[in-house]
Amino acid sequence: MVIDLETGDFEVDVSEIAAGDRLEATHPDAQIWIVRIGSGYVRRFGGRTKRIG
Fold first, then answer.
1. Are 37 and 1 in contact (CB under 8 A)?
2. CA-CA distances (angstroms) from residue 44 to 11, 19, 28, 40?
């Protein structure tokens, strides 16, 4: 998935190059962020609370 940070528009494709090309076709000056869907990092986003006792 590629996301334009300015507009929030996005494209999803198996190939980040193809997705980025489509996004740049509609937003030539896009500030692109690439995210892998299903990445293990998504499940670890945020803090954890400590258990006491």
1. yes
2. 23, 25, 33, 7
Q: Give the pair of three-digit tokens for residue 17.
A: 């190059």
Please state, in angstroms and as integers, the Cα–Cα distance from residue 15 to each residue in 33, 41, 50, following that order.
14, 19, 39
Domain regions of the chain by residue span: 2-43
pTM over the 0.70 mark: no
Task: Give the amino acid at 28.
Answer: P
Contact 32, 23 (CB under 8 A): yes
Which residues of the chain have a pLDDT value below 50? Answer: 42, 45
Identify the pLDDT of residue 35.
Answer: 86
